[in-house]
C-alpha cells in the first residue's frame, strides 16, 4: 500500500467526519470529561464500528479516539499510567481493525488534541492557557511518544488554537520522527487565539515531520481563505476538515446554530491547495459520502 504522503502527491484524499457525533448517533452518552475517549475502556467495539461507518462511506483516513485521551485524564478516572498508555495504544489498534475490514488503501491518523481538550471546558476554542511553550511540550510529549509507538500512518495534531501550542507540538513531532499534520482552529484569518494565520502557518515550513497543515473544527465559510494562506505560507499540502457549522457551548456541552457543511465548497478548497479533506463535529458518514463523490480522483 502506498504511504499517505505518496497518495497526496497524486490526488486529494478523503478524511472521516466527527467521531463523537457518530458515537452519539449510535446512542452513546459522551457527556463525560473524557468524551469519546471514555469508550476506549467502556465500549471499544463502538469505536471500531464508528470508524468502519466512515470507511464504508468513502473515507480513506480515520482519526483515532485519542483527541481527549491523556494520562492525566485517565488518572482522574482511576487508571494508572500503564493502563492509560494501553488505552492510548488501543485507539490506534481499533482504527486499524476497522481498516482491515474494507478494501482499498486506508490510513490511520492518531489524534492529539490541544491542552484545552483535557480541561473539557471549551478552552481549546480559545487557547492562551497561561502556560509556556516548554510547559505545553512537557504535557504533550508523553502521549505523543506512546501513540508513535503504535506506528500510526500520521499524527493528527488537531484543533490547535494558538502558535505557542503549535510550537510545542512541532518540537515533539520533529523529535519522534512520525509524520504529522497540524491543523489550527480558526476564526476568519486568525487562530482562535487571535494570531494572524500567515504567522501561524509559517511555523510549518521548517518542520521535518509535518507533511501537511491547515484547519479543522472551524466554520466551513472560513476554510477557503485559510487554505490559501496555508498553501502559500507553509509550502506543504493543506488539510481542511471544518465542523458542520455553529458554535460549541462549553458549559452546556452542546452545539448551537444550524449546520452549514456544503460539499459545493469543496472544489474551491481543492483549487486553493487542499489535499486532505473531510469534516469534524456535526459532519457524519452521509456528508462524507457526498464529499467522496465530488472529490477528483
UniProtKB/TrEMBL annotation:
Instruction: Give one GO biological process term.
Output: methionine biosynthetic process
Q: Which cofactor does it need?
A: Zn(2+)
Q: Which Gene3D superfamilies match?
A: Homocysteine-binding-like domain
Mind telling me which InterPro entries this protein's record contains?
BHMT-like (IPR017226), HCY_dom (IPR003726), HCY_dom_sf (IPR036589), Hcy_S-methyltransferase (IPR051486)
Q: Write the record's keywords in alphabetical order, separated by commas.
A: Metal-binding, Methyltransferase, Transferase, Zinc
Q: Where is each Hcy-binding domain found? A: 1-295
Under the heading NCBIfam families, the entry gives: PRK09485.1
List the protein's name.
Homocysteine S-methyltransferase
